[in-house]
Amino acid sequence: MAFKIIASQCTQCGACEFECPSGAIKFKGETYVIDPKKCTECEGTFETQQCASVCPVSKTCVPA
Amino acid sequence: MSAPMISLQGLSGTTVFDQSPARAKSGGCASSSCGSSAKPHEMDSAVWEKIKDHPCFSEEAHHYFARMHVAVAPACNIQCNYCNRKYDCANESRPGVVSERLTPDQALRKAIEVANQVPQLSVLGIAGPGDACYDWKNTKATFERVAKEIADIKLCISTNGLALPDRVAELAEMNVDHVTITINMVDPRIGAEIYPWIFYENRRYTGVEAATILHERQMSGLEMLTARGILTKINSVMIPGVNDEHLIEVNKWVKERGAFLHNVMPLISDPAHGTHYGLSGQRGPKAMELKALQDRLEGGAKLMRHCRQCRADAVGLLGEDRGKEFTLDRLPDKVTYDASKRETYRAVVARERGDRMAAKSEALGMVKTAGSGKSLLVAVATKGGGRINEHFGHAKEFQIYEASPKGIGFVGHRKVEQYCLGGRAEDKSLDGVISTLEGVDIVLCARIGNSPEDRLKESGIRATDAYGYDYIETAIGALYAAEFGSEPLAATA
């Protein structure tokens, strides 16, 4: 399982990128994208998904 | 197009004022009530050295020096009800708003170009959108790169304080000696109404729990900065019905913890901005409500009254924004720092400000010897340098001074729509200017036409260009003496 970023809502602040414990988030083109192969949904590392917890716009980092 | 600014020539020109024997009285200024405008003889010399070139930390310096903000740290660790993270705009001028975000390398290029073009530049700040202490990698990289190229530039940051305690040691190492912390509450129950959530130690907190963590981190960050001798300015957003009364308590707390200045800013709330407060109909305070609160805070932590609530990418003197001249597409690909303009300007300012201080001292003497208990509210059109050097019709704001038995003090600024555009005067905007100047007794400017002068007169506001290019205090002192003194004085210009 992985999370994804709704590009149209993203403010490109980049907080998710540096909070992601798996290095799954990168800036590509115009927005941040989550590599589903690397995303672990923070399972076993944190209680909550870091990208969704720090994202300033609701419903922007969501389950893929 | 060359932008309006104080030219070196304008500043180095001869001073026109009556050279009658100085009646300097030390401590004559109401320094306890207008702290940020205090002068060297009234404050610790080490503190003066730190603030004398910083336009935001010193009212006096804001006449001479300019700041630039670089938006390099867009990530934030808290959500505030007055902030909308989706908002970027070229035409809005308010905190948090930018038209482009920069990488540290782009910020370096911009800083060098601005330093080459704007001789008044003395400060590089990182003030949003986002939090400079949270988005630390970008902040640090920017400061390190800029400090290496422009060694004498002052570095400062603005922060919500949540991540601040983790960064104090590095801030001190990098010689960042001006930090602004936004503190809107010391009671977490009030904080819970302002902050929907914080992100701390890998999880999101809400409600009173979130506000309690934020409060504790803010206080500890402030104490750590004070312990290291780093100057702090506290920004508080005044939210009527939420924290307006409470800010009196906030002022006490921050004073006890060594805050250097307290800047109470009015909430900016407009549905079009899409913030929670904008959408929920929470109103901002009226100008008079803000002033009433500021007056009640006198005697606590010193107040900043010259804040313009500038954009997070503003460039130039406070009150002007030359940001549009320095957008990325206008920056040369390769830039080399040339210190010559800034050095020349500093030499001129060093002479000029000593001269102005003597003139101010003399003007205070004039006000005191007038022996009147009355006060005079004066609006000044100025481009900087502490002089009356802007045409009435070109002014985008007026700086408001009050002369009273307490002295001559800066009390604020009022923004207006420029009345004369491209040589054509607009009657409609003159109406707006007149209503903005309500309560003002006299307007001082470099030039004014007969028609606007008459229109102002009909509204009970006198205007004169008789003191054009004089120091502001010199003119106000002479006016006050002429108005209330026993022996009318001749105009000095």
UniProtKB/TrEMBL annotation, chain A:
InterPro entries: 4Fe4S_Fe-S-bd, 4Fe4S_Fe_S_CS. PROSITE patterns: 4FE4S_FER_1, 4FE4S_FER_2. One of its GO terms (molecular function) is metal ion binding. Its cofactor is [4Fe-4S] cluster. Keywords: 4Fe-4S, Electron transport, Iron, Iron-sulfur, Metal-binding, Transport. Residues 1-30 form the 4Fe-4S ferredoxin-type domain. Pfam families: Fer4_7 (PF12838). This is 4Fe-4S dicluster domain-containing protein. It comes from Mesorhizobium helmanticense.
UniProtKB/TrEMBL annotation, chain B:
Coiled coil: none annotated. Keywords: 4Fe-4S, Iron, Iron-sulfur, Lyase, Metal-binding, Nitrogen fixation, S-adenosyl-L-methionine. Pathway: Cofactor biosynthesis; Fe-Mo cofactor biosynthesis. CDD domains: NifB (cd00852), Radical_SAM (cd01335). Pfam families: Nitro_FeMo-Co, Radical_SAM. The keyword Membrane does not apply. GO terms for molecular function: 4 iron, 4 sulfur cluster binding; lyase activity; metal ion binding. The keyword Metal-binding applies. Its cofactor is [4Fe-4S] cluster. Residues 62-311 form the Radical SAM core domain. Belongs to the radical SAM superfamily. NifB family. NCBIfam families: nifB (TIGR01290). Involved in the biosynthesis of the iron-molybdenum cofactor (FeMo-co or M-cluster) found in the dinitrogenase enzyme of the nitrogenase complex in nitrogen-fixing microorganisms. NifB catalyzes the crucial step of radical SAM-dependent carbide insertion that occurs concomitant with the insertion of a 9th sulfur and the rearrangement/coupling of two [4Fe-4S] clusters into a [8Fe-9S-C] cluster, the precursor to the M-cluster. This is FeMo cofactor biosynthesis protein NifB.
